[in-house]
Task: inverse folding
């Protein structure tokens, strides 16, 4: 999968564009899920997913038909997430105090884990662990596909996943609840329609 | 328009299978995912897709 410059590729045929559009429709729920896991905030996550769709449509000529569309879309969304993270100081990636507590916490798993507890704990992890947990653990993405999406080695995916699982389990079973981080909706989502119109 | 599911993705050739949902953390992560998947797609998404449809129908976005 590559994202070469559109100018290097011939224009998509109408049938390919229809297929691309259908692929976009199909991927929306998974995009929303991945974004929600990354952000922990429904509005911000949906803004990210919408922006990823708009950007993907604008860059559709750089997608090679027959390659992994899901991975390509997740890459776009992930890039958008980190761009937003850098620009928006209201979004804090992770809390060092939580990380310290995680390192000393005893990792144990109960027979049943509350989904909301997992959702909350997920947001206290570093983004790199959060995204691999959402990709592999939640979305069922393979190690190899996750490595492509995150731009790292398969071994790195496995180690991040292992660390993420341990940290998540430790946070869930920890003795006290660390402070909640300040994550607010992205106010920049209003420009999505105009981006589309400009594509 | 109702939600669309995206569960039809085949693993890449030669790829290892995804994580088995055997432990409580994996099960909870899957449930988290399924909760979002089960939601109706918000109107904002449908508007974007409708705009794409309009461009496709009119050829207004082709180069």
Result:
């Amino acid at each position: 999968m590559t994202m070469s410059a559109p100018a290097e590729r011939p224009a998509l045929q109408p049938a390919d564009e229809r297929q691309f559009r259908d692929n976009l429709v199909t991927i929306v729920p998974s995009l929303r899920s991945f974004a929600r896991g990354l952000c922990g905030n429904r509005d911000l996550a949906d803004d990210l997913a919408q922006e990823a769709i708009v950007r993907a449509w604008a860059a559709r000529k750089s997608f090679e038909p027959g390659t992994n569309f899901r991975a390509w879309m997740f890459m776009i969304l992930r890039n958008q997430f980190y761009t937003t993270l850098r620009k928006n100081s209201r979004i804090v990636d992770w809390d060092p105090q939580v990380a310290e507590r995680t390192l000393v916490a005893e990792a144990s798993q109960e027979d049943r884990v509350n989904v909301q507890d997992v959702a909350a704990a997920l947001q206290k992890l570093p983004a790199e662990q959060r995204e691999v947990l959402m990709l592999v653990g939640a979305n069922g993405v393979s190690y190899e596909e996750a490595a492509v999406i995150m731009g790292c080695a398969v071994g790195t995916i496995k180690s991040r996943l292992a660390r993420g699982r341990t940290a998540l389990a430790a946070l869930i079973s920890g003795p006290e609840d660390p402070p909640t981080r300040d994550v607010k909706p992205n106010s920049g989502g209003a420009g999505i329609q105009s981006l589309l119109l400009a594509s | 328009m109702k939600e669309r599911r995206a569960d039809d993705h085949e693993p890449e050739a030669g790829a290892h299978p995804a994580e088995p949902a055997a432990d409580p953390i994996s099960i909870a992560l899957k449930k988290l995912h399924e909760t979002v998947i089960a939601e109706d797609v918000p109107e904002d998404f449908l508007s974007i897709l409708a705009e794409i449809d309009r461009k496709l129908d009119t050829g207004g976005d082709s180069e």
Observations:
- Chain A touches chain B through 60 residues (CB under 8 Å).
- Chain A has nine helices and no strands.
